[in-house]
Amino acid sequence: RFLVNFDSGSADLWVPSSRCHSATCKSHKQYNSKLSLSQAPRPVQRGGPKISRTQIEYGTGMVDIEPTQDTLRWGSAKALNITFGEAIRMTPDFDAQFDGLFGMAFPSLSSPGLEPPFFSLARQRLLNANQFSFTLGDSGGRLDLGKVPGSAADDKVSWVKLVKPQFWAVNVQSIRAELNTPTIINFGDSTSKQQQQQKKQQLLRLPENGVLNLNVKGIGLFDSGTTTILCPSSMATTINRLIGASDNGLRVDCSASTTGPTFHFTIGDDRSSSHFVIPVAPHQYILGDGNPGHGCMSAFQPGGPKNKWILGLPFFANRTITFDIDDGRIGFSQLRRNLSLYERDIDSVVDETSSTLDFGRNASTPESISTASNIFAGQLAVYKPSHASSSTETNALAILKIGLAFVLNILYQVYIS
Q1: Are 342 and 287 in contact (CB under 8 A)?
Q2: Nearest-angstrom CA–CA distance, 417 and 414
Q3: Is the Cβ–Cβ distance between 105 and 114 less than 8 Å?
Q4: Over the stretch 137-167, which tens digit does the pLDDT of each residue have?
Q5: What CA–CA distance (Å, rounded) separates 410 from 317?
Q6: Residue in 261, 412, 286 with CA at minimum distance from that of residue 343
Q7: How many Å apart are CA 313 and CA 136, to the nearest integer?
Q8: 253 is catalytic
Q9: Cβ neighbours of residue 22 under 8 Å, at least 6 residues apart?
Q10: 245-249 long-range CB contacts below 8 Å, 24 or more apart?
C-alpha cells in the first residue's frame, strides 16, 4: 500500500523498490516485484536491449528508477501492462509523507520505457473520455478520471488551449491586482530616508480605484505537485510588496488572508475566445497551519524561470480544473462556496475507510486507513466508456483517499502486490 502524489507537472509513476536499501527508501513502503503474480519483464526498446536505470531530477530531489510493468486494477476496470518505475535510489528530499509520484503530464516528458499511467488508460480505452479533473473545495477534494456525468461545479466549464501538448501549460497574458488598501506595501524594516522616500513614491503611484495592472507576458504551468506559485524573481518581489510580505514572501501577517489583494490572472490566447480570467484570492495564497501564532507565508515565491510561472495548488483551491488530453486544453469551473481550505478542521477525518487501487493479480480488500492529521478526505472516481454500461448510470469504480499534505499536496493510496 503506497501513498502517492498526483503530479500534473511530471509524467512518471514510480514507487520505492525493495531493492533500495537507503534510509530514505526504507522509511517508505517498498514494491517487491517477486511478490506480484502479474509483474511482466521490463520493457524492451525497439531493436535494442532492455531499458535499464534512469535518473529523474525534480525541482527538489532526484531518484534513480528501473522500469517495470504490471496490471493495474481500479475496481472492475483493469489496465494491462502499466509501466512504472521502481526507485532504486532516492535522495533525502523524498523523506516525505508520500511514498512516490504519479505523473500526469504528457508522454514526451516520460522517462525511457515508461508511459504516463493515465495515457495508458486512454490508449486502452478504459475511460468514457480522455480527461481528468481535480476538485478542491472547502468540503474536501476529488479527482475524477474520465468525463463526470453532469457537472461537479456550479458554472459552465471555460476552456483554454495549451501552448503545446507537453506540460499542462497555457499563456499568461496579464495580472490585475485588486487592492484593499495602499498601505499594505512593505519595503522591509529599514527606516532610511532613501527607503522612506521610495515607499512614498510607490504609494503615490497606486491608482485611486485600487486596481493595479502588472505588466506580465509568459507561460503558466499548472502543477498539482507544487504547493506554492513559483514566479520570475522580479514579479515575486512586486507581488509580495503588494501583499505586505517580507523575506521573499516567507513572512507575512496571517491577517493578510482577509485583507490582501485579489490577483486576477488572464490566461490563454487573447486573440481568440480561448482565454479565461482566474482569480486568486488572499485566502488561497496566504499559507499557514491555522494557528496565527505560527506565522504565515506567501505562496508567491521567486525561482520560476524567466517569463515562466509554476502555478501550484493555490490555483486549484475552490475550483474544478479539468485536463483534456485529446483536445489539448484545460477547463475551469469555479465552486460556489469560495471558502478557505486552510481553515478546515482536518483532524476530524482521521481513520476514514476507503477503497484502493490495485497493482497485480491479488487485490487487497479495503481496510481502515489511519492518515496524518494534516490530510483531509477526498474521493477519486473512474468512469467507464458508454459502451460498457448504461449511459445514464454514474459508474464510480473506485473511491480513494486523496488529500492535501504540507498545506496543500494531492496524495492517494495504491496497492501493489
Answers
A1: yes
A2: 10
A3: no
A4: 777 788 888 887 665 444 578 899 999 889 9
A5: 11
A6: 286
A7: 9
A8: no
A9: 89, 90
A10: 245/186, 245/297, 245/298, 245/300, 246/186, 246/188, 246/189, 248/301, 248/302, 249/297, 249/298, 249/299, 249/300, 249/301, 249/302
- H or E stretch at 85: strand 77-90
Please state, as a whole number, how many other Cβ atoms lie within 10 Å of the Cβ of residue 216: 19
- Model pTM? 0.78
The end-to-end CA distance of the chain, in Å, is 8
Q: Name the catalytic one among 7, 12, 70, 253.
A: 7
Question: Which residue out of 12, 223, 253, 358 is catalytically annotated?
Answer: 223
Q: For residues 311 and 154, give the distance between their C-alpha atoms in angstroms, rounded to a whole number.
A: 23
Q: In whole angstroms, what is the distance from residue 69 CA to residue 226 CA?
A: 27
Q: Please say if 289 is a catalytic residue.
A: no
Residue 232, all three cell numbers: 520570475
DSSP element (H, E) containing 201: helix 193-205
Report whether 254 contacts 296 (CB < 8 A).
Answer: yes
Closest CA to 407 of 259, 264, 283, 237: 283
* CA–CA gap between residue 265 and residue 235 (Å, rounded): 13
pLDDT digits (tens, 9 = 90+) for 336-368: 554 433 333 322 222 222 223 455 544 332 222
Domains of the chain, start order? 2-128+349-416 (2.40.70.10), 162-304 (2.40.70.10)
Digit-coded pLDDT (tens) for 76-107: 557 788 899 999 999 999 988 889 998 999 99
Q: Are 187 and 200 in contact (CB under 8 A)?
A: no
